[in-house]
Write a structure and sequence with these properties.
Arc Repressor Mutant, subunit A; about 190 residues; 2 strands; homodimer
């Protein structure tokens, strides 16, 4: 399995739809469906993004998600850590102290400081994290827009989300009428 | 599971015993046992290191492993790749083309160039690999020696490996005599 998994991939793609201000607050299902990724998986990811302060949610029929801070202030690293937790590149087991010559009593010099192998891995992890911290949702979006998205595309997106919200509201009204009819019938 | 696993940790620790020239060629069991790591696991790792040109093996009772090239020319990255194969940091699934608005026919602009998210991950992977390539077995050893190993330690190590080889030779002679006796008895 890759170090940075599918959850991060889905989260980043879904979050990009929230970068340009929308009139609606899409649900996680809306975001999953516009992106063509599994809604049940995305529904589990968004509470993690909310907990990490990347999105904020509001409830109710018009409720849904929006970014909790400016897209310039949300890095790829923030999303990786939110979705996967802070996971180590390397899990040092302090093998150095186990040398047969130490006879189960490693001398002080053997365990002095951080193990040299662990230190290399920790430094590599820092370099990796620093790199992932350099790219924000804003810069990712600028890159996508730079690919030549047609001028009308973003208004199509807006319409798609508006239609979804309208459909939810209609479904709710129908649901209320149906419940009310059921009560009258009863 | 960590991205860089236990196999790499064991491999690096065992390889460090081969950096200072030894009179013997230790077996993978010798290396595992002096380091206090599981011999069966290490026995599976060394053929990978041999295939990658990091160690070379010779057979026979005095056979075993030595580094196949100078420790300055064997990087931590070489060992990671040898043990784990070249594994991706991120496995892009080309999610960008699945947008619901494309109706299963993504326009050319949508798939132009590398996906922006994938590009960030590829760059981070390159930075990580470049970092792991900077440290060699020689520099790792210099770091360990810098921790103040007592002057007599390396000759103890030499004696330990020599005793192991002598024990193997004795066992072989006993085995030969025993087979020969069995034949005479038969």
């Amino acid at each position: 399995m890759a170090y940075i998994g599918t959850g991060v991939e889905y989260a980043l793609h879904c979050l990009l739809w929230l970068v340009a201000p929308l009139e609606q607050r899409p649900s996680s299902r809306d975001l999953a469906e516009i992106q063509g990724v599994p809604p049940a998986f995305v529904a589990k990811i968004f509470p993690k993004l909310e907990k990490a302060g990347i999105v904020e949610a509001s409830g109710g029929i018009r409720g849904g998600y929006r970014l909790a801070r400016a897209p310039e202030d949300i890095s790829v690293l923030d999303v990786v850590d939110a979705v996967e937790g802070r996971k180590a590149l390397f899990d040092c087991q302090e093998v150095r102290g186990r040398c047969a010559l130490f006879d189960n009593k490693p001398p002080k010099w053997a365990n002095r400081g951080v193990c040299g192998i662990h230190a290399v891995m920790l430094h590599a992890e820092k370099v990796l994290r620093d790199e992932l911290a350099k790219t924000s949702l804003a810069s990712l979006t600028a890159g996508v827009l730079g690919k030549g998205i047609p001028s009308g595309f973003m208004s199509e997106v807006q319409t798609w989300f508006a239609d979804r919200q309208a459909a939810r509201e209609d479904a709710r009204i129908v649901g209320m009428r149906s419940r009310s009819t059921t009560r009258e019938d009863a």
